[in-house]
Amino acid sequence: MSAIPERPIALLSPLVEERDALLQRLTDVGTQAVGILQVATGKLEGHSIVLAESGVGKVASAPSAPQSATSEDSRAIGVCGVAGGIDPELAIGDVVIADRLIQHDYGHLTNQGIRNFRPGVPPIGDARDRIAFDLSPELLMRIGGVVKDVGLPALPPDLGIPTQRPPRIAFGPIVSGDQFINSEHVRERLRRDYAALAVEMEGAAVAQAAELIGVPCIVIRSLSDLAGAESHLDFPKFLRAVAPTAAEVVARVVSVL
Ligand code: ADE
Q1: Strand bridging mode 113-116 / 132-134
Q2: What global pTM score does this model have?
Q3: pLDDT tens for residues 110-152?
Q4: Residue 134 CB-half CA count within 13 A
Q5: Are 252 and 143 in contact (CB under 8 A)?
Q6: How wide is the angle at C-alpha 206 spanned by C-alphas 204 and 209, nearest 5°?
């Protein structure tokens, strides 16, 4: 009697550079069309994977979640790529695993600033509860268990990355919005308002779509920049160098998804 095939994990990367960092790790690689997506299939550490380049931003990335996950009945969705660091303790090259995901640009905008609402809920009135998409405590614990002893290699010294300690892995909130953050002022606000460790442009939108189809969504990002005054220079400079660090952590995590 043949064994029941394992349900795959859908992995999404917004950019081709981020996708390629994962693709390089796959074995038994194939390609197939899934709706509007061209996906790669293969194995990562022996686990079945469907891998897609989702495009940048909330609207581009969110439909890739149901497309890649439902066509193959995936058991989890992972978003893997780079982000801007928000927590001042973190450095370029560090990896953040989201314990919660918040769309920082969804809400009600007044002269006092933005009041966030849960995406999908009309942004009017007082209802502000549950603005975040939270990872389940059980899944968080399983992921914590497999990454706790992971030692990530230091990035090459000739890149000119300011910190030369080996990259760290941190768990905490990641915020997403349709904006590339290139501002100390906004960086401080995102830290103050959401205790965010990192900012990117897709994770919380994919989490919203994943919730609709009842599949867990895990977002793993390495820091390409620190979302401040230099981020527009750092992002293109470090993107290719740090993308493999997030892919390395994803390779450790797939066994517990
Ligand atoms: N992804 C990588 N860096 C970013 C930044 N500074 N803002 C938004 N998304 C990012």
Answers
A1: unpaired
A2: 0.95
A3: 999 999 999 998 999 876 679 999 999 999 999 999 999 899 9
A4: 6
A5: no
A6: 110
In the chain, the percentage of residues whose pLDDT exceeds 90 is 79
Does 227 contact ligand 1 (Cβ within 6 A)?
A: yes
CA–CA dist 220, 249 (Å, integer):
8
Q: Write the single-letter amino acid at 103.
A: Q
Which residues are CB-neighbours of 197 under 8 A, at least 6 positions away?
Answer: 85, 86, 87, 90, 96, 170, 172, 173, 174
Cα–Cα separations (whole angstroms), residue 5 to 39, 40, 74, 145, 172? 19, 18, 12, 26, 33
Look at residues 99, 143, 168, 138 and name the one whose alpha carbon lies nearest to residue 255.
143
Nearest to 99 by CA among 1, 196, 191, 235: 196
Alpha helices, DSSP H only, in 43-161?
Answer: 58-61, 64-71, 137-147
Residue whose CA is at the smallest distance from ligand 1 atom 9: 200
142: amino acid identity, one letter: R
Ligand 1 mean position, distance from CA 90 (Å): 14
Both tokens assigned to 202? 């897709």
- The phi, psi pair for 23, rounded to 5°, reads -55, -40
| Pocket perturbation via mutation, ligand 1, pick of 232, 235, 237 by most ligand atoms within 8 A of CB | 235
Q: What angle do CA 72, 77, 78 make, to 5 degrees?
A: 135
